[in-house]
Amino acid sequence: MLVTRLIERKRDGGRLEPSEWSALIRSYVAGDVPDYQMAAMLMAVYVHGLDRTETAALTDAMRRNGAQLSLGHLAAARVDKHSTGGVGDKTSLILAPLVSSLGVAVPMMSGRGLGHTGGTLDKLESIPGMRTDITLADARAQLERIGCVMMGQSAEVVPADRGMYALRNATATCESVPLIASSIMSKKLAEDLTGLVLDIKRGSGSLVPDLDEALELAGTMVWLGESRGCTVVALLTAMDRPLGRAVGNALEMEEAIHALQGDGPPDLMTVTFALGAEMLQLGGVAADGDDARRRMERAIASGQAARRLQEVIEAQGGNPGVVDDPAVLPQAGACELFEAPRRGFVARVDPRPIGRALIALGGGRERPDDPIDPGVGFVITAKPGDWVERGEPIATIFARDDAGIEVGRAALRTAIGIADEADHPLPLVSHRVTIDGVTRTA
Ligand code: URA
After folding, report:
1. Order of strands across the sheet with 231-238?
2. Of all protein residues, whose CA lies closest to atom 3 belonging to ligand 1?
3. What is the Å distance from ligand 1's center to 339 Cα?
4. Ligand 1 centre distance from Cα of residue 117 (Å)
5. Does 110 sit in the ligand 1 pocket, CB within 6 Å?
6. Is 355 in the pocket of ligand 1 (CB under 6 A)?
7. Annotated catalytic sites, by residue?
8. Ligand 1: centre distance to CA 182 (Å)
9. How far is the CA of 175 from the centre of ligand 1 (A)?
10. Hey, what domains does the chain have and what are their CATH numbers?
11. Quick check: CB of 217 below 6 Å from ligand 1?
């Protein structure tokens, strides 16, 4: 196979055959296609897109060039949830233990920060000692024992996504429907799931801000899953402002722990419960949405959901004491309140500059091997539509030092707009997409 010919064809708007995608990914995983050629191919795909046949061929090639979980022996249904990426989106950290504590097995395979969006693995690894590089054998054993594992793509599982994900992050090729669909679905299909719930973010902070594009992404992923034997439900949710209050790895881990203890911010809990209700119904544990919600509220109130998180952390080498005392999480060296510069309505809290500032503070990566500073970030209490007085604290900046505080201040000045009138934010959950079509939920 001459890789330059394939790149050339894609660069010029042509198509690759399934056998060519398969050969390309096999050679990439074997180390015969260097990163610079794969990066060129990713840019060509970003520019010209892929049709559904090509997206499916790429997804299948990524999934097959690696080991896969085999979980058919488990008595429980196997259901996972995955988001297309956002700022402050920590629902996975809450849903995996919550749903698994209610009797559905959750083999969750997540990613790291991508572009300006955060990653579940980076948030989990803010817990001292916590490992996410779990082998398939260990993942199986952990699922049998406690019904939940939270792991990443590895040299063993979907190795192609591990490399391509890091390249996309470094080459501004994250925002592509076929690349997002193949990245997510290759991982999900390797998990041997019976059901999958997708959180498709839309709005200015999403990798696919536009509604039509978000619906196309949802439709593509639902079709990919269903045509490969996995029932998929996708919800479109708002990413025109950060979800919850915390943005930053340890800060989001702490907010997720509070949510599992019954003290989560209302917007975060609305999205979490909507996704969890779909997971529980797909898992055959809840009869309908109301039943699912009652079960989740009970699991939180009784402490059973938080205990499950403790078990997962302990099984993966982390300090389970973090659930009772989140102060064991890494702390920032400097922090400062950010005050409203005028009185009025909070007109917008734009997630993109906040996500980018988190990277500049050291909480995300510019290059694949950049280390992460887990303690830095923001807690933003102001939400679009809130009335604030001049000088009222509306956020806190957490940074390594004074220079970082200045970076945080500048980002919040850009991101938070205060005006005489409030815009209407997007509905938190707006559409539900299944193989039967799209329904509006708001
Ligand atoms: N999550 C992933 O795993 N991949 C993407 O491309 C986006 C979000």
Report:
1. 79-83, 195-202, 231-238, 429-434, 437-440
2. 184
3. 34
4. 10
5. no
6. no
7. 82, 161, 168, 183, 187
8. 9
9. 10
10. 3-49 (1.20.970.10), 79-326+428-440 (3.40.1030.10), 330-419 (3.90.1170.30)
11. no
Q: 190-202 in b/e burial notation, b at 16+ Cβ within 10 A?
A: bbbbbbbbbbbbb
| Distance between Cα 183 and ligand 1 center (Å) | 6
Q: Is the CB of 84 under 6 A from ligand 1?
A: yes
Structure tokens at 309: 């998180």
Q: Is the dihedral of CA 305, 246, 236, 385 positive or negative?
A: positive
Closest CA to 203 of 123, 85, 118: 85
DSSP output for 125-152: TTSTT------HHHHHHHHHHHSEEEEE
Q: How many whole angstroms separate alpha carbon 283 and alpha carbon 26? A: 34
- List the pLDDT tens digit at each of the 442 positions of the chain: 799 999 999 999 999 999 999 999 999 999 999 999 999 999 999 999 999 999 999 999 999 999 999 999 999 999 999 999 999 999 999 999 999 999 999 999 999 999 999 999 999 999 999 999 999 999 999 999 999 999 998 888 899 999 999 999 999 999 999 999 999 999 999 999 999 999 999 999 999 999 999 999 999 999 999 999 999 999 999 999 999 999 999 999 999 999 999 999 999 999 999 999 999 999 999 999 999 999 999 999 999 999 999 999 999 999 999 999 999 999 999 999 999 999 999 999 999 999 999 999 999 998 878 999 999 999 999 999 999 999 999 999 999 999 999 999 999 999 999 999 988 899 999 999 999 999 999 8
Could you tell me which residues are beta bridge partners of residue 336? 397
CB 183 less than 6 A from any atom of ligand 1: yes
> How far apart are the two ends of the chain, measured CA to CA in Å?
50
Please give the number of the atom of ligand 1 that sits closest to the Cα of 180: 6
Mutate-to-test residue for ligand 1 from 84, 161, 171, highest number of ligand atoms within 8 A of CB: 84
Torsional sign, CA 293, 325, 81, 195: negative
The one-letter amino acid at 315:
A
